[in-house]
Design a protein that fits this description.
mainly beta; Lipocalin; binds magnesium ion; 23 strands; 368 residues; Jelly Rolls; elongated
C-alpha cells in the first residue's frame, strides 16, 4: 500500500513536471516567435519584405493643372508655403523648382486640405550620394501626417516599405517606377482623410492611391495611422483639413508643378424626404392586361410579364427589370429612376407604353 502510494505520487509529480515544462516551452516559444502586430504581418522596415520590380514609364511631364486645381507651386515662388514656425519657407526657388535645404525644416502648404487629388513632380539629387534612406530622401506628407515616401530608388536598396512611393513603414509600392536621379518624376495621389467619431474614436481610416510616373503603385490602401520611423502611431483625432507638408530629410530634393484638387465626399447623401411613390396592389387578372409585347418605331421590344404578384419588364435586351405598380397608368422601376407610363384605352386596356428615364423617352405600341 505504501509503495503503491509512492508510485502514484511519483506519477503525479512526473505529470506535473511534464506539464510545467510544456508550459514553459510554450511560453518560451511564443516569446521567440512573437508575430508582427501590423496588418501586413511584417514589422515595419523589414529588409526581408519583397521589393517590387522596376517598371519603366514613358509618362510625359509636366502635367498641366486642371481648371479647378489649387496651384501650390508653379515655379515662380513659395508664397503658398511656410516653415513650421509660420515664417516664410526657407527652401531655395530656382529655375522653376524649389529645393529642400538641409536643416531648414519641412515646408507646409498655407491652405489646408482633407480629401484630395494631388499632383506633384520631384527629382532626386545628382550626383546620387548616400545609400538607403540617406539617398534623395524627402516625402509628401498628406495632412502633414501620412507620408508617401520620396527617395532615390532608381538604383538604391532599402526596406521595401521605405522606398519611393511607399506609404512609409506600411505599404511598399506595387512597382518600382523610379527614374534616374535628376529626372523629373511625378506622384498622382488620391487621398481620403480619416474620419473620426465625435468622441475622437476612429470611424474610418485614411485611404490612399498613388500613381508613380503614371503607374499604379498604391491601390486604395488603408493607412494604419500616422507614419513614422521606428515608432507605430495609432490614429488620434485631428481636424478635417490640415496643411500638406514636404520633408527636409537633409537631401536636396527638388519639387515643381504641385497642384491639388479638393475631392467631394464619396457619395452625396440621399434625399432628406422619401421621394419614392406609394406602391399599390392590383389583382393578378388586372396585371395580366399589361403583360405581353410592345414595340417602338425602331421595332425594339418591350416585354412585360408577371410572376405571381410581381411584374417584370424586358426593355430592349435588358431582362428582369422589376417593376413597382404606382397606379394603373404608372409603373416605376425598383432600382432605377425610370418609369413606364401606360396608355390605356377607354376600357382600361393598355395599348402602348412610354419609358421615361433621364431626359429620354421611348414609346412603344402593344403588339400582343
Ligand atoms: Mg522621407
Amino acid at each position: 500500500m505504501v509503495s503503491n502510494m509512492t508510485k502514484r505520487d511519483i506519477r503525479i509529480r512526473l505529470i506535473k513536471t511534464t506539464l510545467l515544462s510544456l508550459g514553459s516551452l510554450i511560453a518560451l516559444g511564443s516569446g521567440l516567435t512573437a508575430r508582427a502586430q501590423t496588418p501586413a504581418g511584417w514589422k515595419a522596415h523589414d529588409m526581408n519584405r519583397a521589393r517590387p520590380k522596376m517598371v519603366t514609364s514613358s509618362l510625359q511631364l509636366p502635367v498641366a493643372a486642371p481648371a479647378d486645381a489649387v496651384v501650390l507651386f508653379d515655379g515662380s515662388g513659395v508664397s503658398q508655403w511656410r516653415s513650421e514656425d509660420g515664417g516664410p519657407a526657407k527652401w531655395i526657388v530656382k529655375d522653376g523648382y524649389m529645393e529642400s535645404v538641409r536643416g531648414s525644416g519641412y515646408v507646409f502648404s498655407r491652405p489646408a486640405f482633407g480629401d484630395v487629388q494631388l499632383h506633384i513632380e520631384w527629382a532626386a539629387p545628382v550626383p546620387a550620394e548616400g545609400i538607403g534612406q540617406g539617398r534623395g530622401n524627402s516625402g509628401v506628407f498628406l495632412m502633414g501626417l501620412y507620408e508617401v515616401q520620396v527617395l532615390d530608388s532608381h538604383d538604391n536598396i532599402t526596406y521595401a516599405d521605405g522606398q519611393a512611393a511607399a506609404v512609409y513603414g506600411q505599404y511598399p509600392p506595387l512597382a518600382n517606377a523610379s527614374r534616374p536621379p535628376g529626372e523629373w518624376q511625378s506622384y498622382d495621389i488620391v487621398f481620403r482623410r480619416p474620419r473620426f467619431q465625435r468622441d475622437g474614436g476612429l470611424e474610418k481610416p485614411a485611404r490612399v492611391s498613388v500613381f508613380h510616373n503614371g503607374i499604379l503603385v498604391q491601390d486604395n490602401v488603408e493607412i494604419w495611422g500616422p507614419t513614422s520611423w521606428l515608432k507605430h502611431h495609432p490614429y488620434e483625432s485631428h481636424p478635417d483639413r490640415l496643411p500638406l507638408s514636404l520633408q527636409d530629410h537633409g537631401n536636396p530634393v527638388r519639387y515643381r508643378n504641385i497642384w491639388v484638387r479638393d475631392l467631394p465626399e464619396w457619395t452625396s447623401p440621399g434625399p432628406s424626404e422619401d421621394t419614392t411613390k406609394p406602391v399599390i396592389t392590383l389583382a393578378p387578372e388586372v396585371l395580366d392586361r399589361y403583360t405581353g409585347e410592345y414595340r417602338d418605331d425602331q421595332n425594339r421590344r418591350f416585354i412585360i410579364r408577371r410572376e405571381d404578384s410581381r411584374m417584370y419588364a424586358q426593355i430592349f435586351s435588358r431582362p428582369n427589370l422589376e417593376l413597382l405598380v404606382h397606379s394603373k397608368q404608372e409603373f416605376g422601376m425598383r432600382w432605377t429612376a425610370g418609369r413606364l407610363a401606360f396608355d390605356l384605352n377607354s376600357d382600361g386596356e393598355p395599348v402602348g407604353v412610354k419609358l421615361l428615364v433621364g431626359r429620354a423617352e421611348f414609346s412603344a405600341k402593344k403588339i400582343k
